Amino acid sequence: MHVVATLSLKGGVGKTTVALGLAGAALHHGVRTLLVDLDPQANATIALDVEPTTATVADVLDDPRRSVLHRAIAPSGWGEGLDVLVGAEQTERHNHPDPGPKQLNRLARALSRLHELPDNDGAGAPDDPIARAAGHDPEDPDAYRLVVVDCPPSLGQLTRSALTAAQRAILVTDPTMFAVSGVQRAFDAVHTERHRGNPELQPLGVLINRVRPRNAEHEYRIAELRDIFGPLVFSSVLPDRSAVQQAQGACLPIQAWDTPGAREVSAVFTALLGRVLRSRRAMAGRPAAAPPPIV
């Protein structure tokens, strides 16, 4: 199981869009995935068209027992193989500015119990090359192979809990004048949590969202980000396409929205999924203390 957090410490940059796009790509390629909605706005839960549950991630953070976790997870309306640890406004009560180690570890404890949940038929398609890259656990073929955590746009207990539980963090930004400071704060947060007790945690990269072609300001900000953060910035950017909002409004993955703009965005998310899975293989082949290179 590979845990990836989508992170931004600047609101309104499309962090949830990236979490949904990555989850949709995983679903499309048969990689069984759990999306954890840690944002109290619960926009990802709404977009994933989830049926009501008797518990939410807020309850799991109160009491990370297996029985509570089971009640807080529901199948996504997008299709079999993508489940949701549902978000709720009440999650905000767990967003303390200065949490202790016990509070920070609750999400990681809960995720460690995912293998104890009842089996279902969500295993990925073995003939898909991306699904094969994700790997199977022969002792538990129904296990989640990817967990995507959608963080709130603030550095409190919720975001730090995600970084405590994750192996990789995707730093999401947009090409505006505040982009550099937002990415720097997110990068520093990853670095801090890595040294506080999660040595597996690494930034996967910086993904620039809502890019408009032939926009001088956007081109300037992208160049600025590449100059400061170098190869940490993904070579592919997410274009600003109305198809993203249309698909979310219809509670459908962007991969199911058949327009040229949607196909362009979907291709970026497929590449992102491939990079996530390559980082998983790199991590498995190295000692825990040795971070993989950013490629």
UniProtKB/TrEMBL annotation:
<dbReference type="InterPro" id="IPR050678">
    <property type="entry name" value="DNA_Partitioning_ATPase"/>
</dbReference>
<feature type="compositionally biased region" description="Low complexity">
    <location>
        <begin position="120"/>
        <end position="133"/>
    </location>
</feature>
<dbReference type="Pfam" id="PF01656">
    <property type="entry name" value="CbiA"/>
</dbReference>
<feature type="domain" description="CobQ/CobB/MinD/ParA nucleotide binding">
    <location>
        <begin position="5"/>
        <end position="248"/>
    </location>
</feature>
<dbReference type="InterPro" id="IPR027417">
    <property type="entry name" value="P-loop_NTPase"/>
</dbReference>
<feature type="region of interest" description="Disordered">
    <location>
        <begin position="117"/>
        <end position="138"/>
    </location>
</feature>
<protein>
    <submittedName>
        <fullName>ParA family protein</fullName>
    </submittedName>
</protein>
<dbReference type="InterPro" id="IPR002586">
    <property type="entry name" value="CobQ/CobB/MinD/ParA_Nub-bd_dom"/>
</dbReference>
